[in-house]
Each structure stands twice: as structure tokens, then as C-alpha cells.
Model the fold of this input.
Amino acid sequence: MLVLDRVGKTYPNGVRALDGVSLEVVPGEILVVIGGSGSGKSTMLRAISGLDTPTQGRVVLDGAVITAPHEKIGIIFQEPRLLPWLRVADNVGFGLEHYPREERRARIEGALDRVGLTEKARGWPRELSGGQAQRVAIARALVPRPQVLLLDEPFSALDAFTRADLQDHLLDLWADFKPTLVMVTHDVEEAIVLADRIMVMRPRPGRVYEEIACELPRPRDRQSAAFDFVKRRVLAALDRSLDRLVITVDTETKAAAGGGLWW
Amino acid sequence: MSLVAMTATSERAATEQPVPKVRVARWARPALGLLVPVVLALLWEMAVRAGWSNGRLVPPPSRIYQEFAELARSGELLRHVTATMLRVAVGFALGTAAGTLIGAVAGASSLARRLIDPSLQGLRAVPSIAWIPLFILWLGIFETSKVALIAVGVFFPIYLGVMGAILSVDRKIVEVGRVYRLSGPAMVRRILLPAVLPAYVISLRAGLGLGWMFVIAAEFMGASEGLGYLLIDGQQLGKPAEIVAAILAFAVLGKLTDWLIVLISSPFLRWEDRFART
Done:
């Protein structure tokens, strides 16, 4: 079990990025953290990963306090961050250096097959599209079978089609060995498609504002009334009413169509 | 862009004829670079043969070739080339070793950088030829002072290149290494070395170029053999063909050694996403 005990981070310049967040994530749960910029969501994720140390509180995984990157915790960043000098297969196997050669090869092949990039194994990262590169990054993070997988806005740099595709794909991969997922995003639909539980954060200082359970049956239909219901709740918690959003979109459509002609 | 404009563009693209391009076969591309010098040389040869010039100060290619052949036959060429190559090799090795080591230390530790970088930048501002009198006083007029001068010339571009490359390694990539809990040596081997390699190769090439430059300066200051000696000898005895032959030898050696660095490093740099793929 992953436990955050009043985790906070104050930067040396006095900015309070994260203000005492406590939470528990049970094994296999998919927790999505959503919030605007400056709400401390990425700060929290980096504290869990052990890349940054919090200034207050502590992160505990199965009784062990996390102070540095841990073998049971994997992370996927916003950018693929592949190593350009390694071929795709070697990038996937980057965290498997200490494994026996056969085991390593089998795992790499399996992971590449799972993300559908077997034919790119001998290729270089520069030859991949954005979506393919992020799939390789996902394979690299999953191949050591981490108990907890952290995702820091992993799909935000991708186009809408690729994004929806990879969201479904991520759920497939998650089902293989059901790691705990903690994902940070600012995309409301993405949160509802993936999450068992949504944590809405608000800035200044970064705090958890509301927790919303999201127990729709999977696969989730983005057009269903239940989906829309959850979406309204999340938007309300984010202080962005859906109605206001609709009005803005409408005005933009009118403007694009030529304001004069419309009337 | 409006729909009308888009349709117009695509229509134009469809009707436009492909512009015929001059295509050069792969094997012929290196030859293309030879075209200009060969044509110029032939023109000059013709000019001298036709008697428009006596070719005394600017010898025609045939006379330079004769000079070359003569030097090669007598073993003189080999002797001079070996002497020069040896000086460059030793000076380059010493300069590279020192530049790499000190550059790596200055790149890795900000304390070391604050301590030594200002002094080295100050020394770098001194034209290296200015060291010659001091080196002769300290190290004598023979090989040691020559090699020292070459090493100084090679040192600075490599020091700067290595330090700059280490400082500009992407923090995000280093973080990937941290996520996989790489130890210090593993971080260097698996992340830092490959990341700095392209810049390092460029600094090696710059250093080698300076090495060739400084070997001439070193040999000008008094040598009994070497291509630089050949240059001075040609000047004092009034033999322009010998001078041009020595210059050509420099050009060939410089290009060959540079190409050697490119050749050795290219298997390690195949991953690079370059603007021009050769």
C-alpha cells in the first residue's frame, strides 16, 4: 500500500507548492490526480517517485519510507525521454541491466509486442512518431513490473486521436499485472476514462480539494449520461462549470463562422 | 487558411511540373569536390606550357609532381612526414588527455569550475605562439618544447568542448538514469558518456586542426626535419615547388587524420538525428 502522510513541499523562495497532502492508495487502484497549473500535482508525483524529497511529511510504500527512486516504483514522464543513442529494444530494456540475458530478451520482446512495436525493435528513437515514442516509454516503465507506476501527464503532448488510443492501451497493459497507477493530468475526460478515484487539487497552496469516486463499468462510454454526471462533478470541483464552458465554445463557433452572417 | 485558398494550393501543386534536378550518382559525389582544383591546376599547367608564364614563382602541377616524386624517391618525404606526424601525435595525445581530464572535472564539479576555469580562460586568451620563447627557455630547442606547444594548442578546444558538453547534458535524461537507480560509474557510462560523445568528437577535430597549425609554428622555430622545416628550406633556397609540395602534404595529412577521427567515431554516432546525413 502506498501512503502519503502530510506530504508538503515549500520551495526555497517560500512558494508553497504542496500543502500537507495525506492519502492512501490500495494495490491495483487507479488514482488520477487532476488540477490546474500550480496545484502541486506534479510536485506530489515527484515526491512519490523519490526524485524530489518533500520538505514535510513522508511517502511510505509497504512500510518503507521513500527518499530516493525505488525499484518498485516506475515513472512515465510527459515526454518519452528515450535515450537517443540506444535502439528501441535497448531503451525498453534500460532498467533490466542486471537480468539474465535470456530473461531480458524475452521481457523486451514481450513488452514491444504488447505495445505493438515489434517491427521497430532495431530502430532508433528518432525514427518514431510522438505516440510510438511514448509507447516505448510505457514499455520501458512496465518491463521491470513495478508495483506502483506514476504517470506525469503522459499523453498531454499527443494529438486527440493518439491520446484516446493510448488511454485504452494503458488500461489493457495495466490489466496484465495490475500495478497501482497514480496519474497526473489536466484532462477531465482522461481522468474519468481511467480512474477508480479522482483527486481534484487546487492551487495556492497546492491542496486536495475533493475526492470523487469513479466507479463506472469499464470500458467506459464517453457519451453516456453517467460519464457526463461525473464530468460535471469534476468540473465543478475544479471551479469550471460545464455550462460556462459550453457558452464559451458556442461563442467561438459563432465567431469562427463569421459573426455578422450568423445573425 | 480558408477552404478556397487551400483548394487553390493543392490544385497548383497538382498541375506543377516537377523541376528537373541535377542528380549526382553516389560514387561521383566525392569526385565533385575535386572538380574545381583539378580544372584550375590544368589551366595553370596549360598557361605555363604555352609560355604565358615562366612558372618560376608559381610552379605548374607537373613541376610540383616532379618535386614530390624526387622527395619521395630519396626518402626525404617520409623522413619529414614521420617527424611531423610524430610531433603532432604526441602533442595531440597529451593535449587530449589533459583537456579531457580537466574538462571533465570542471564540467562535473562547480567548485572545480570556479577554481580553475577563470585562470584557464585567461590563459586561453594568450595567443599560443606567445609561449614559444618561454617553452624554449624551459624545455630546450628540441622535441620537448615543440610537443608542449602543440599540446597547449590542442588542450583548449578539447577542454572547452568537454566542459561545455557535460554542462549541457539534458537534466531530463539524467533523471531517467536516476529513476533506474544508476550508480555514479553507471550514470557516467550509460548516460553521460554517450550524451557528450558528439560534442567530444567535434572538439577532437577542432583540437587536431589546431595541432596541425601549431606543428608548423613549432617547426618554424628551428628544426632539422619535418614539413615545417621543408617550408623554410624551400623559402631560403628559393624552391617554390618544394614549398607547395610541403603545403600539399600538410593538406593531405590534415584531411586524412580528420577523416580518421570521423571514421572511428561514426559507428558510435549512428543514432544522431542530423541535419545532413552523409
Summary: Residues 184-220 of chain B form the longest helix (37 residues). Chain B has one domain: 61-267.
